[in-house]
Design goal:
The protein is an alpha+beta fold and 99 residues long. Helices cover 31% and strands 30% of the residues. The strands form 2 sheets. A 4-stranded antiparallel sheet has the order 2-3-1-6.
Length: 99
């Protein structure tokens, strides 16, 4: 279990301090990275949160997966490593890099 969490299906008006406060109920929050659209600055509906321990991260998943926030049901899970996601993106873009 890792300390970094993926939080999806967030209301678009969610702010970093909202997530800091909510996930602080499960333990000590080290970082909140609310993903925003580069052009508009509007939240994109998901974030990455790093808790201070694996145990606190698991507690946050247990506490907030399928928790309702702003009329939406949150999806909280352990974040996947960045390298795994970027490989998938390259494949969808039709990368011609053959190894």
């Amino acid at each position: 279990m890792g300390r970094k969490l993926y939080v999806g299906n967030l209301p678009f008006n969610t702010a970093e301090n909202d997530l800091q406060e909510l996930f602080g109920r499960a333990g000590s929050v080290e970082t909140v990275n609310l993903i925003r659209d580069a052009a508009t600055g509007r939240a994109r509906g998901f974030a990455f949160i790093e808790m201070s321990s694996d145990e606190e991260a698991q507690h946050a998943i247990d506490e907030f997966h399928e928790h309702e926030l702003g009329g939406r049901t949150l999806n909280v899970s352990e974040a996947r490593p960045k390298s795994v996601m970027s490989v998938g993106l390259d494949e969808r873009r039709g990368s011609s890099d053959s190894r």
